[in-house]
Amino acid sequence: MTIDFSKLPSNPGCYLFKEVTGIIIYVGKAKNLKKRVSSYFLNKDQGAKTSALVSNISTIDFIITNNELEAFILENTLIKKHLPKYNIDLKSGQRYAYVQITKDSFPRLAILREKPNGKEENVFGPFVSGQSRTELVRYLNKKFKLRTCKRLPKTPCTRYHIGYCTGPCIGKITKEEYSNTIENVKKILQGKSSELAISLKKEMSSYSKNQDFEKALTLRDQINAIEYISQKQTMERQLKFDQDIINFIIKDNKIYLLLFNIDKGTLVNKKEFTFDNSLVDISVIDDFLIKYYGNSNNEIPKELILPVIPEKGTKDYLEKIKSEKIIFTIPQKGEKKELLDLCLKNIEATFFKDELVLIDLQKKLSLKFLPRVIECFDISHLSGTGTVGSMVSFKDGQPHKANYRRFKINTLDKGKIDDFKAIAEVVKRRYSRLLKENISFPDLIIIDGGKGQLSSAVSVLKELDVLNKVEIISLAKREEEVFRPDYLFPIKLNKKDPALHLLQRIRDEAHRFAITYNRLLRKKEIRKS
Fold first, then answer.
1. Dihedral (Cα; 326, 328, 333, 336), 10-degree rounding
2. 474 and 442 in one domain?
3. Which residues pair with 303 in a beta bridge?
4. Which residue, 246, 146, 241, is CA-closest to 189?
5. Cβ–Cβ under 8 Å, residues 1 and 57
6. 254 bridge partner residues
7. Alpha helices in 170-234, H assignment, sequence order
8. ω before 307 within 30° of 0 (cis)?
9. Among 82, 107, 140, which residue terminates a domain?
10. How are beta strands 266-276 and 97-101 bridged, if at all?
11. What's CA 390's distance to the chain center, in Å?
């Protein structure tokens, strides 16, 4: 299959590989979806299982999340729901996991695979998965310097010497001090992190004022740990009923809508819809709710989380179908608002990723126009022979190959190298023709090179009296600096900036197209000789 990796977002989230029938065959999580998915297809040293997986991929879907933790949770959920054949089989009980504070004089954290029978004190959970539970325990042990040994040794262990344990085995901490620490850990496991963080901040401030910086530093680490653990796990919450979350964007008379299915607090699926706004007789939400849930295949959940309030008639219609009351929620803040915003973020990543990058590029380079149409020029030769020029065209962030052009350079003597003169020739030939045929100019011209190449192109545009019709920049490969004719200094974009990645992709495509033409001409010369 051919995959356009530029369509994939760089956000954290989950990717879903599907075979030709649409069945999900693999679910994975990623800190950066674009990099992770690309690695499956660009890495040649794959095992037999991965090779078999890749050969069966027909389409790729994704769900972006706010952070890596949410991606982990969502991956666990999606695997449980869809049972993809290429994922490692999970035991049915692996999802539920518990942590216990032991009854020792200096308690420690113990991992439980199952909840004990009856009422057992100081048992916390269930947690999202065995792995997340283990990571939490490891993190708490390290940050709160708890003992991990099952029996107190007579001499301190390595953890004490590297500062990960308070040393109760050798009396370096009293039972009262240790008990206070355990109470703080208990509050975290009970979900009372916010009030604990406030209390510890006051305590830390007091130690700092008294210049007890060692204890203040310890509390600072614990506060940071609490804030990390308290990171909102938007993908999974404990609820007794189902929800659907719906959000949409209207653009260019089209409606882009996305629906999240929430199964008892856990995001399990997303569905995308695009339709013509002119076909909607009532509000977008009302029209969608009536058409979608009027279909007997689509079950109406107990709660609908929406960006706007539907009409009373729509509510009555849905409740009549469901035969019970439905909760219609239009959140203004809190967790449900975050889910609604996440839905919107997925719409932008799914439908408008390229446009958002173009808007960002316009802002970063202070361009007058949104660069919907970009043309990029490059020169290629082999030691001065077979000098050619290329021009590639991108429309709305994607290659527009029907508009690609290639040029034999006519103004250079054979064997002479002069990229400045070559650039001037191809730019003049291209835009003289557009003027003659009264064809629209691009929004942005990119020249592969530095100040010299840019100056040559600008001189031609001035000569043709069209410099006011278009923006022009050059991209220098060594430092990836962007030059503008009206700027004294180059613009340096962050290496991770999607706007720079787009410029690089366009520049590299122009380079590829030029080299291909250069090789073609050299082959023809060899055949003649």
1. 50
2. yes
3. 243, 327
4. 146
5. yes
6. 251, 276
7. 175-189, 193-209, 213-229
8. no
9. 82
10. unpaired
11. 33
Check: CB of residue 250 under 8 Å from CB of residue 284.
Answer: yes
pTM: 0.54
Contacts of 47 (CB under 8 A, 6+ apart): none
Each of the 529 residues of the chain gets a pLDDT tens digit; together they read: 566 677 788 888 899 999 988 899 998 888 889 889 988 888 766 777 788 888 889 889 899 888 776 787 788 778 877 888 887 543 434 444 678 899 889 999 988 777 666 666 788 766 655 555 676 788 788 888 899 998 888 888 888 888 889 899 999 899 998 998 898 888 877 766 667 777 778 888 888 888 888 778 877 877 776 766 655 444 455 566 788 999 999 887 888 999 998 877 667 778 888 888 766 666 889 889 988 998 777 889 999 999 999 999 999 999 999 999 999 999 998 888 888 998 998 988 888 878 888 988 999 999 998 999 999 999 988 766 678 999 999 998 889 999 999 998 888 877 687 889 999 999 999 999 999 999 999 999 999 999 999 999 999 999 999 998 899 999 998 889 999 998 889 999 988 888 998 999 999 999 999 998 888 877 776 666 5
Q: Does residue 473 share a domain with residue 388? A: yes
55, two tokens:
């050969």
Query: In this structure, which amino acid lies at residue 32?
Result: N
449 burial type by CB count under 10 A (0-12 exposed, 13-18 middle, 19+ buried): buried
Which residues neighbour 326 within 8 Å (Cβ) at sequence distance 6 or greater?
300, 301, 302, 303, 304, 315, 318, 319
User: CA-CA distance, 40 to 487, in Å (whole number)?
Assistant: 41
Say whether both 454 and 376 belong to one domain. yes
Quick one: 523 and 443 in the same domain?
yes
Structural domain boundaries enclosing 460: 360-528
Provide the residue type at 303 as one letter.
Answer: E
Instruction: Give me the amino acid identity at 334.
Output: G
CATH (domain of 306): 3.30.420
Residues in the chain: 529
CB contact at 8 A, 30 and 37: yes
355 is a domain residue: no
Characterize 467-505 residue by residue with b for buried, 16 or more Cβ atoms within 10 angstroms of its Cβ, and e for exposed: bebbbbbbbbeeeebbbbbeeeebeebeeeebbbbbbeb
Distance CA 370, CA 358 (A): 7
Considering the domain architecture, whether residues 405 and 321 belong to the same structural domain is answered as no
3-state secondary structure of 256: strand
Q: How far apart are CA 383 and CA 381, in angstroms?
A: 6
Residue 45, token pair as written in the block: 């040293």
Instruction: State the DSSP string of 113-174.
Output: SSPPSS--TTEEEEES-HHHHHHHHHHHHHHTT----SS--SS--HHHHTTS---GGGTSS-
Please tell me what DSSP assigns to residue 310.
Answer: P
Same domain, 183 and 48: no
Q: Give me 180's structure tokens.
A: 């206070």
